[in-house]
Amino acid sequence: MKRKIITTADGSKTIQIEDWNEQYHSIHGAYQEAVHVFIKHGLQYVTNHENVSEPISILEMGFGTGLNAMLTFQEAQKLDVPINYVGIEAYPVSQDEIDQLQYDTLFGSDSQTFFNIHELEWEVPKSISPNFTLTKRQQFFQDITDIDTFNLIYFDAFGARVQPDLWTEAIFSKMYQALKPQGVLVTYSAKGSVRRAMQSVGFEVERLPGPPGKREMLRARKSS
Questions:
Q1: Could you tell me the residue range of the domain that residue 74 belongs to?
Q2: pLDDT tens digit string along 52-108?
Q3: 161 located within any domain
Q4: For the chain, what is the domain count?
Q5: CA dihedral of 22, 27, 30, 35, whole degrees rounded to 10
Q6: pTM for this structure?
Q7: Cβ distance 159 to 187 under 8 Å?
Q8: Which end of the chain is more exposed for a tag (fewer CB within 10 A), N or C?
Q9: Domain of 121: which CATH number?
């Protein structure tokens, strides 16, 4: 499918799949959405409110442009918290697209780290810094088999409008199993069907204020 680079409302760029009229990040602000959903209501929530033993293990469903991974890397440095980060992506972004996104301008002195993470070998854990280890896995969501592994999941799949099969009870059952007891999942979506699918597999789900352009988002917790 044809992809192109577009500029979102906060000035940061993202990738658009033209045939679907779907973007990797919100057109209302790629950077702002990532910070609000995954850092503020995901990582910061877990470090502030949950009794998590170090290191924190994070699974990102939809590694995509690497934006969420880089923001998490920077937050790990600020918090001085060790993080093991696993990013799942079935169709890796090309180096040409990485260059066009110009995300290096978002990360200041860490700009080279952004390019480095895209050059890393897949399927192999790599230490990015003393407190951040990244593993990129080229894998379909349906093939996830992790059990009681992660403290936090960033669920950043394409929307249910274009890929409804990624927002089903079957997928969220895999997410539930992949989380440690009391583990947390955050997503930008707030669709009723998504919330019900999460609840049906055992998640306790709460609605939260959404990022710019969205009224709500969801955060879910594994109950046991």
A1: 29-222
A2: 767 999 999 999 999 999 999 999 999 889 999 999 999 999 999 999 999 988 998
A3: yes
A4: 1
A5: -110
A6: 0.95
A7: no
A8: C
A9: 3.40.50.150
